[in-house]
Amino acid sequence: MDSVNGGISIQTTGLTKRFGALVAVDGIDLTVRAGEFFGFLGPNGAGKSTTIKMLCGLLRPTAGAIRVAGHDLAREPLEVKRAIGVLPEEISIYERLTGAEFLVFAARMHGLSVEDARLRSGELIELMELGEAQHKLIVDYSMGMRKKVAFAAALIHRPRVMFLDEPFNGIDPISVRAIRNVLRHLLEGGTTIFFTTHVMEVVERLCSRVAIINRGRIVGEGNLAELREKAQTGGDASLEDIFLKLVEAHVDDETLSWL
Amino acid sequence: MRGSLRYVGLLFWLKSRLMWRNYTRNTSAAVGAVFLVLCFGPMSLGMAAALGAGFYYLEGDAPGHLLRGALLFIYAIWLLAPVFGYTLSEDYDLEKLLFYPISPRQLFAGVIAGSVMDFGVLLFVPALLVVLISFANGAAGLLLAALVLVIFLFHTVALSQALGLVSAGLLSSRRSREAMVIGMMLLSFTFYAVTQLGARHMASVDWGGLLHSAAWRLVGFTPPGLAASALSAVRRGDFGTAAALLLALLGLAALTLALAGRLVQLAYFGEGPSLRARRRRPPAPPVRPRTRPEAAPSWSARLLPPAVYAMARKDAELLTREPYLRMMLMQCGFGLLMGIVVTVRFASETSGADVMPWVAPLFMMMMQAAVVFNLFGVEGNAAFTLFLLPASRRHLLLGKNLTFFSVFALLDILAAIVVTALAGQVERWWALALWLVLLLGGQIAVGNLVSIWFPYRIVMRGWRVRPASASRQMTYSVVALLAQGVTVALLLPVLAAVLLPLYVIGPAWFLLTLPFGVAWVAALYLLSLWLSERALLAREMELTEQLMRVD
């Protein structure tokens, strides 16, 4: 458990990112407690990926401070990277390695011994049902298999905080179940999961708390009840209703003239 | 320190695996590697042999000067290559390593360690071995000399890689890239002028004076100069001086590593522009759709089949928007400018004045060929959508051909007018223009087939075009060169049809030869279109796979 900062796993203060004149993330303050399954939602282009990149140390903020797993990201970037596992939206793996080679490589890059790396990689390959493909080059994998390898690589060093960007997208139901089981075990062990998806039902089912970002600003944060209150929707409003209300989306019933 | 060494080892392993897989899984990379060895291997061995003979037979200070010159040459090659957009190393995506707890400096040290497997280093190994053998003096001397060479090489490769990072990362914006293309043109002009002057005055150079000049002494303080001085000191047995110079080199190498680490930081962590080829822009605020009166369709839209028109229109838009095509258009302009300079240079000389207008546009034509020999290169992931379309493949090709033919033909006509005017032969502009336009037609005919059989995805990194590995660059260069040769060979009858009436048999023959020339190219194009349509249908899956993949 992260006892640092009173069990706070991720904390941002005034986090801002500007690209020239455009403000992609506009002074957001976020607090995610250790062991929390935290959903981070927003429409396309709202600033989700930019925020995640900053939280992972892949993009330098224009202003603001970030603490992840008890470390100040600006001062201890490598400590943060040791503590986190990232499954990015665009899978970023060396396709000319085999699945097994890549997992051992990822484990070694996180400082695991060769024996541990092989042991964990073997278990992950079995869990992800990649046994038959483990000695094939990743370039020959399907999209779902690539995602599974990337997920396994993000997990292999047993991170304290996991950033998962659309983790279930393109994965078969059997592997989704396997991954959800792993995530449950991780949560029980105190791992924090920072999770983004556009599938509201998944967030509703898995996440203990949610933040909604729109045009670079947090427009709602809390559990479902708190969000309903913030959005001033009824007691039976779904997360989708709340989301649409908070991001001020207008879904017209208009149809196409030629249909 | 132990952690750093582990990372260096891991990155070395990664690079060797990726390189090996690149050769075993990619025919073009393997063929390119063979070409590289066949072309540059003898040059590398020749340089080593020449240096060996020089070090053995020259006396006094001469071997030291020769060594300084040789190291300066190696240094210049490594530093200029990335500036001109060439890569001497096998590239791999560093961005994929940023998820791991590795510092930019460790990352860079790993990259440099891996570069000992690169052709750029391997080709200089024979020469450096000859230097080592010639300058080592006893066991301690051998160790010192080896250390000097390793540190020199480390510093050189690190600086080269750092320049590559600057070019790729800091030039990812359109403005800076285009500014760089203009900068490159100026640099190329300077290079041309210097080599021309050098070639003219080579015989009259006072080599003795040069070796004692202030400039040459100044070279002694540069990294290759320091390395050469250290090695000369080793040869003399003056190990104290050699060790002091080695320390200076070591300091420079550490400084380079720090600088390169900072550049990695700038380029990859969002302090400067990202290294990504494309950065997704957050969407602009919603704009209320404007109702515009419907414009009448243009004559081309009415005349052309819908798919041909749509394809031509799309590629015409891309010509001004796609960074690679914009760059190639600028390079064509640069080619024309080079032609003008060459024409002006030879216009006063009676021996070259007649020939120059016919030779001057060739550089521009090579730039045009680079585009038409890889018609689908900029499609990238859109290839998937393109080949899903039920449109006739002939129409797709026709659309692409039409755009490039229209734009380049205009440029060719302009080139013909300008160079013939400058050469004082403006009355022949139409003959040159006709030849260039027919040559363009031939290039497009050959280009259709080359584009289908040897496609490669264009991905800009800075102003460099991926595939960036030295071996693959070599393959595509050889393919383009062969295709150019085939085009010229196929068009020899057309060249004869233009030149013979003009210079030998009299202009009256144009009545017969010109229709023949036009018909010849038209027949070539129709044949190519017929073959390409079938080839495209048969190879669409392979084409999609190759165009969508970024190695």
Describe the structure.
The complex is a heterodimer of chains A (259) and B (551). Chain A has one domain (4-246): Rossmann fold (3-Layer(aba) Sandwich). The longest helix of chain A is centred in the C-terminal third of the chain and has 16 residues, at 173-188. Chain A starts with 7 loop residues before the first strand and ends in a 13-residue tail after the last helix. Chain A is built from 9 helices and 10 strands. In chain A, helix 3 packs parallel to helix 5 (143-155). Chain A is globular, with a radius of gyration of 19 Å. Chain A is α/β, with parallel strands linked by helices and 259 residues long. With 551 residues, chain B is mainly α. Chain B folds into 2 domains: 2-194 and 215-268, no CATH class; 303-548, no CATH class. Chain B has a two-stranded antiparallel sheet. The model of chain B is unreliable at 271-281 (pLDDT under 50). At the A-B interface, helix 1, helix 2 and helix 3 of A face helix 1 of B.
CATH homolog superfamily of chain A = P-loop containing nucleotide triphosphate hydrolases
Strand order of the largest sheet of chain A: 6-7-8-3-9-10
General form of chain A: globular
> Residue ranges of chain B: pLDDT <50 for 5 or more in a row?
271-281
Q: How far is the first residue's CA from the last residue's CA of chain A?
A: 56 Å
Rg for CA atoms of chain B = 27 Å
**Largest sheet descriptor of chain A:** 6 strands, mixed
Number of helix segments of chain A?
Answer: 9
Which CATH class of chain A applies here? Alpha Beta
Class inferred from helices and paired strands of chain A:
alpha/beta
What is the structural class of chain B?
A: mainly alpha
Helix content of chain A: 25-40%
Question: How many separate domains make up the residues of chain A?
Answer: 1
